[in-house]
């Protein structure tokens, strides 16, 4: 199979490479958090709505478990007060079997609760992860130029991961423990209301202490997640291939280790504070509740000693058993309350990302074009990165016929790459409009845009996967023959088949197993496979040596054939054959024409041309 280039209705192409400019923008910072309120809690509850059927089953299991648990102390009272004193062995055996049956039933109900609640919790976490990832996929390029990659990763991994215990067990724990507490209190009152009053005297104090501890831990949890995000950013940046190369060549390995150690020390302090915050107060609660049986025995003794109605041994033992059964769910409820308040900090961080405004959106009924010809127009285009910031582009007027070629040149920071990024809507114009075949790109469907416009930049990105998988990213259903044809057109096939694993060769992290020129040709092959009618070449060869540039330029020539091509370039030798050349300065077009026309003017383009010639003659 041979590669057939895309042929537009107006075949007339030229080609050239380029490199993206690094527009300076401020780092994204999240808005100030508002205190968690009822709205946040309602929003968390809504996460569980799709699974309310399963949660209803959990509720039934919890109710049955609580009823069975309460029955056990009454069986114990009957054993102590009736079966043993009266020597009724048959009744004793029946009551003992009943107690065993309650234990078995509780175990079965507990396994069912755990299975369903864990499944629901994990599904909720999956929904959150997917929602955050999907939201970030819709964010504009500007968001990612302002936000550290480690921060984004931390939100998805650490923050959502930190909520695991809350979303998998909290709902079940709340219902289970609350039901157990209510059932136990009712049963205790049925046995002896006076002992019940004694048992519950300090409960309001315990609840107040738990709420206070929860608020304190929530604040620490927020600081802890920020610190984890900071550490994730350091790891992502310094332990990537590029980071290791930079650290080694700059001799900063020890310095980076010290920086990481300092950040880790801060995390240690926050973890210790989080775990110890309110620990003594909660320990006092545990001690008091553990000492309650002694208080009950003492109260029962006083009642009998003053001529009051005596409490039977069976009743007292059954009551203490219930009281101890009340202790576990009560402490668990208090701990769950603390955990919920702590988790609110994590939910707020996740909701912060889910609430990010999506700057670039698709129209409700977008325009779809089956066959794009490739005519590009810039109509009085203005663009600024910030609403009240200095414009990067001003009053751009350009027309590029289908199949034509445009080269954009100028000094670094003049807005060349920004201009090209407006065509595929990586950014939206702030004034005027950009059209493809007469349709505003903002009215086109995302599918049409991604099919119509291909971008090859200096910053080639390859996944840590095989060569074939990287190429199929452009066209998942591509056949082996199509992949080979694209690689041949990009002049990289011979190198690929010379590798031991051929097209199954792993390219390594960010493609570091391949040279710069090889990576560029892989990127070109990937774009050839996509076969877009409009091509953006953003400094695709500027970082390559002369010999490699010539090979890559041949591949670019094959890619550009018959396509509408916009080339961003510093090296003017690559744009001489362009149909038209636009010279940008401070975001404005100051000159335009063919190479010969602009060179004869002896203006800005001619100055750039002399600079290139001087650099070429002085280069070693």
From TrEMBL:
Membrane protein topology class: Multi-pass membrane protein
Keywords, in A-Z order: ATP-binding, Membrane, Nucleotide-binding, Transmembrane, Transmembrane helix
TM stretches of this protein: 55-80, 92-116, 165-187, 193-210, 282-300
Compartments in which it is found: Cell membrane
Domain ABC transporter: 376-611
Region of interest (Disordered), ranges: 1-38
Keyword Nucleotide-binding recorded: yes
InterPro entries (UniProt xref): AAA+_ATPase, ABC1_TM_dom, ABC1_TM_sf, ABC_transporter-like_ATP-bd, ABC_transporter-like_CS, P-loop_NTPase, Type_1_exporter
Matching SUPFAM superfamilies: ABC transporter transmembrane region, P-loop containing nucleoside triphosphate hydrolases
Domain ABC transmembrane type-1: 56-342
Compositional bias ranges of the Polar residues kind: 1-15
Entry's Gene Ontology molecular function annotations: ATP binding
Name recorded for this polypeptide: ABC transporter ATP-binding protein
Native source species: Streptomyces polygonati
């Amino acid at each position: 199979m041979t590669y057939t280039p895309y042929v537009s209705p107006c075949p007339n192409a030229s080609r050239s490479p380029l490199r993206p400019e690094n527009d300076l923008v401020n780092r994204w910072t999240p808005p100030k958090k508002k205190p968690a309120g009822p709205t946040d809690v309602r929003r968390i509850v809504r996460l569980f709505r799709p699974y309310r059927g399963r949660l209803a089953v959990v509720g039934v299991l919890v109710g049955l478990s609580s009823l069975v648990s309460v029955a056990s102390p009454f069986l114990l009272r009957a054993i102590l007060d009736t079966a043993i004193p009266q020597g009724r062995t048959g009744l004793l055996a029946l009551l003992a079997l009943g107690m065993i049956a309650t234990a078995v039933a509780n175990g079965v109900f507990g396994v069912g609760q755990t299975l369903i609640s864990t499944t629901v919790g994990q599904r909720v976490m999956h929904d959150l992860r997917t929602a955050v990832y999907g939201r970030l996929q819709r964010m504009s390029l500007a968001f990612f130029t302002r936000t550290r990659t480690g921060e984004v990763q931390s939100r998805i991994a650490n923050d959502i991961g930190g909520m695991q215990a809350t979303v998998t067990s909290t709902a079940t724990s709340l219902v289970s423990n609350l039901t157990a507490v209510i059932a136990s209190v009712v049963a205790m009152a049925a046995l002896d209301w006076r002992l019940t009053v004694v048992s519950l005297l300090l409960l309001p104090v315990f609840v107040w202490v738990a709420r206070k501890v929860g608020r304190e831990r929530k604040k620490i949890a927020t600081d802890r997640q920020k610190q984890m995000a900071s550490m994730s950013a350091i790891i992502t940046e310094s332990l990537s291939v590029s980071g290791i190369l930079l650290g080694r060549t700059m001799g900063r390995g020890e310095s980076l280790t010290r920086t990481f150690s300092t950040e880790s020390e801060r995390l240690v302090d926050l973890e210790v504070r989080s775990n110890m915050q309110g620990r003594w107060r909660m320990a006092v609660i545990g001690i008091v509740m553990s000492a309650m049986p002694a208080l009950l025995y003492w109260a029962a003794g006083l009642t009998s000693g003053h001529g009051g109605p005596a409490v039977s041994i069976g009743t007292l033992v059954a009551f203490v058993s219930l009281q101890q059964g009340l202790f576990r769910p009560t402490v668990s409820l208090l701990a769950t309350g603390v955990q919920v308040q702590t988790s609110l900090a994590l939910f707020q961080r996740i909701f912060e990302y889910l609430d990010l405004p999506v700057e670039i959106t698709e129209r409700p009924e977008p325009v779809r074009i089956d066959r794009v010809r490739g005519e590009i127009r810039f109509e009085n285009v203005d663009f600024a990165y910030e609403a009240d910031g200095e414009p990067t582009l001003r009053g751009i007027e350009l027309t590029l016929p289908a199949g034509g070629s445009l080269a954009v040149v100028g000094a670094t920071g003049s807005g060349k790459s920004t201009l090209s990024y407006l065509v595929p809507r990586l950014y939206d114009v702030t004034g005027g409009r950009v059209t493809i075949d007469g349709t505003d790109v903002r009215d086109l469907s995302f599918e049409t845009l991604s099919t119509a416009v291909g971008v090859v930049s200096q910053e080639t990105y390859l996944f840590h996967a095989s060569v074939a998988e990287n190429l199929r990213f452009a066209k998942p259903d591509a056949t082996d023959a199509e992949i080979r044809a694209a690689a041949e057109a990009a002049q990289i096939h011979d190198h690929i088949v010379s590798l031991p694993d051929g097209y199954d060769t792993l390219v390594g992290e960010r493609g570091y197993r391949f040279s710069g020129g090889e990576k560029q040709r892989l990127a070109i092959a990937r774009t050839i496979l996509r076969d877009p009618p409009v091509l953006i070449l953003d400094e695709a060869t500027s970082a390559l040596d002369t010999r490699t540039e010539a090979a890559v330029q041949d591949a670019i020539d094959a890619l550009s054939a018959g396509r509408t091509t916009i080339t961003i370039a510093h090296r003017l030798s690559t744009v001489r054959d362009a149909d038209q050349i636009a010279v940008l300065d401070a975001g404005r077009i100051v000159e335009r024409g063919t190479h010969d026309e602009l060179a004869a003017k002896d203006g800005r383009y001619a100055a750039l041309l002399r600079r290139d010639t001087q650099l070429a003659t002085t280069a070693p």
